[in-house]
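I hope you will forgive my troubling you with a question about protein structure. Here, with my thanks, is the record as I have it:
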Amino acid sequence: MPESAQPETPILVSPAAPESPVTFPPAFLWGAATSAYQIEGAVREDGRTPSIWDTFSHTPGKTAGGETGDIAVDHYHRYREDVAMMADLGLTAYRFSVSWSRVQPTGRGPAVQVGLDFYRRLVDELLQHGITPAVTLYHWDLPQELEDAGGWPERDTAYRFAEYAQIVGEALGDRVEHWITLNEPWCSAFLGYGSGVHAPGRTDPAASLRAAHHLNLAHGLATSALRSVMPTRNEVAISLNSSVVRPLSQDPADVAAARKIDDLANGVFHGPILHGAYPKSLFEATRSVTDWSFVQDGDLEVIHQPLNALGLNYYTPTLVSAADPQLSGPRADGHGASEHSPWPASDDVAFHQTPGDRTEMGWSVDPSGLHELIMRYTREAPGLPIYITENGAAYDDKPAADGTVHDPERIAYLHGHLAAVRRAITDGADVRGYFLWSLMDNFEWAYGYEKRFGAVYVDYATLERTPKSSARWYERAARTGVLPEVDAR
């Protein structure tokens, strides 16, 4: 945002009830999303080398049960049956990420063509089934060799990412029109280098802010690199997990706490990406951690590339207040257990459980937050198309005696959030697609395999895929453009 601008005070939005039936525009994309490390497996095949998530998951105590993505759901070998399953479920789009270390094992130099060939085959398979591919270049799996050289806190990593982006763009740009540079750079920077609950597991507040800037720089450099090798018709976007930050009360101290977290969650990325400047209030709030001298002349111009679209990922809102100075120690913020905070210089902020029903992640179910988020970015970037690139919920799904998997809670979740998307469209937002997270159960990062986000159930012993009732509900929505009733089977 412009340096003179301040983020709006978060306001609780309660949109009007949706019309019935809830219908979507004919060209709306009905998709599902995955990421490479969570589903591919085959971590040592065809020249692939370790990423930071290979190293992290193999480090004792970092993931639930010591589980890893070594096999995951074996999508690398089963992609054809998975694409056929997508077609059977009526999907019109599929968002997947490319494994950087499968394509460029050291993060430098020429590509391994056999690694690129996997993605060529996957794209061809999708197109043959009438499914629009959407490529995410980075979903948290930095090649370990680049982390050994300093990782995202080092400026050079941004330039290595641009080279990688150009390689993938040259290989797939003739057939893939939808491109996303980074997925949730907030998680990469602040969970990876701040709280340490994600790979690479570092806990350095100053490094997390440097990482955030270099991720922004990587996005800008990669956007230019992609456009230098791809047809002009292709869309370049970024997926942000922008938070809906709400104050516990309208007390000025609580409102100030919400503004600080809004800067750290949202302004740190959308400021330079959409508006060409970091919020001044962000600099002021973090001066005890860093002087921001790593922002060099010309960086903001590089970062502030025109986008063709914006990806938004949403799960649950964030509720904060000023911290009670009598209390000390870590406070729950919904981003995993750690004695280190992912929020630099925010010891004066307390995080609170938001009201309402909860998913297995402990996150409250609040579709109004998605509507609020879409409308905020409709104002932040007027005229910029929006895609919901992730939205979904984890529940304790179990097969019935006959092998079917019924998940009515997920159906209700999807209905509520898709209705919120449709309300936003009615209110003037240009939302062009929705990607359910996730296509199927998979490796859920530090939670291992204990959290199931998939619309398709995976038996991890046999790797058999079984569409849940939510998958069939979503299929009907995708085929008709109308949301079925929540109690439909």
User: Anything to note?
Assistant: The first strand starts at residue 29 and ends at 33. The domain at 29-480 is CATH 3.20.20.80 (TIM Barrel). The chain has one domain: 29-480. The radius of gyration is 21 Å.
